[in-house]
Amino acid sequence: MMLFEKSGLLAIGSRLRWLADVVTRDAAEIYRMYDVDIKPKWFPVLYMLFDGTDCSVTGIAKAIGQTHPSVSSIVKELKAAGLVSDGKSEEDRRATVIALTDRGMELRSKLHRVCTDVENAVRSIESQASNRLWQALDNWEDALAEKSLLKRVEEERTLHGSRNVEIVDYRPEHLMTFKRLNIMWINSHWSLEAHDLEVLNDPDASILAGGGYIFVALVNGEPMGVVALCRMDGTEYDFELAKLAVDPDARGTGVGEKICRAALERARQCGARKIFLESNTILKLAISLYRKLGFTELKEYHPAYERGDIQMELTL
After folding, report:
1. What is the pLDDT of residues 114-134, one digit of tens each?
2. Based on the domain organization, do 176 and 298 belong to the same domain?
3. What is the pLDDT of residue 123?
4. For residue 161, what pLDDT is reported?
5. Pairing of β 96-100 and β 84-88
6. Is there a domain that residue 19 lies in?
7. Are residues 201 and 299 in the same domain?
8. Would you state the pLDDT for residue 1?
9. Are residues 74 and 150 in the same domain?
10. Do residues 303 and 172 both lie within one domain?
11. Would residue 29 count as lying in a domain?
12. What pLDDT shows up at residue 65?
């Protein structure tokens, strides 16, 4: 679509609405094909009732991310269709509890086949796609939970015209920044390991002397991010991308991506062909960045750090 080609990321909301409309129209036709008389918007509420975890309007609304009035409206439609009944909770007389009627239970059996076929169809789409939409949505939701789009735009507006990011090679005066930022992020999730201390206490000997590089991101002249390219002699890889750390005050400003791209460009200039990295999957934003840069997960790996549970590679 021409709009999306021209606008790119700016039309993310419009594109998601368009995709939702396309899928919703198909969903309505799928229900008709299987002779299931429901509306697509009913499915999340019905699914929660099929599961039976929390059948209160409040519990369902919280679980599916919709408002209480929105769920109440859907429940009224489901009652009119004879699929559910409602009543007061025994524990809390203020809470409305929803239950499936006999007709609703019959619908549950019919929908089981539909759900199986839809899931297989979605998997076939995923097999054709270069990226996994569901995983991308998880990453987006995590990122927005950490900081909303509104907040990020507010920060961009504040920083616009005043932020100057420069990527420079490591110098001796950057030692404390290199140590501080790495120790900060490691200790926020795990504990420092012996190899961490070996690298952080003497990066000259452990990284630079072996032909590696360290890069520092200066934001308005202040060091706010670091990353290293460590030589991997004797392996199929030329360098390991390691020790990426960004000051919390600079997160969400693109510093991490800029410093990684600078490191990868240096690797290309050195004639490197393959880059390795090790990380942990709880660092969802970092993993998302690595995938954006072109890294792919290794099927078999042997972590060098106790905290490592994923290893990735990039062919330049």
Report:
1. 888 888 888 888 888 777 777
2. yes
3. 83
4. 45
5. antiparallel
6. no
7. yes
8. 56
9. no
10. yes
11. no
12. 82
Counting the structural domains of the chain, the total is 3
Backbone angles phi, psi at 291, to 5 degrees: -65, -40
- Please tell me the number of Cα atoms within 13 Å of 229 on its side-chain side: 25
Q: For the purposes of burial, counting CB atoms within 10 Å of the CB of 222, is it exposed (0-12), middle (13-18) or buried (19 or more)?
A: exposed
pLDDT, position 299: 83
Low-confidence stretches of the chain (pLDDT < 50) are: 161-162
From the list 118, 46, 51, 55, the residue with the least C-alpha distance to 78 is: 46
Q: Which residues contact 28 (CB under 8 A, 6 or more apart)?
A: 39, 40
pTM for this entry: 0.52
Residues 6 or more apart whose CB falls under 8 angstroms from that of 242 comprise: 199, 227, 228, 229, 230, 277, 278
Question: Range of 152's domain?
Answer: 131-162
Instruction: State the pLDDT at residue 53.
Output: 58
Within a domain: 23: no
- State whether 201 and 252 are in the same domain: yes
Q: Name residue 62's amino acid.
A: K
Tell me, rounded to whole angstroms, the distance of Cα 86 from its chain centroid. 37
Same domain, 193 and 308: yes
Q: Report yes or no on 9 lying in a domain.
A: no
- Indicate which CATH number applies to the domain containing 214: 3.40.630.30
Residue whose pair of structure tokens reads 């429940």 in the numeric block: 75
Same domain, 47 and 158: no
Q: Are residues 65 and 149 in the same domain?
A: no
Q: Dihedral of CA 40/44/45/51: which sign?
A: positive
**145, 162, 179 - which closes a domain:** 162
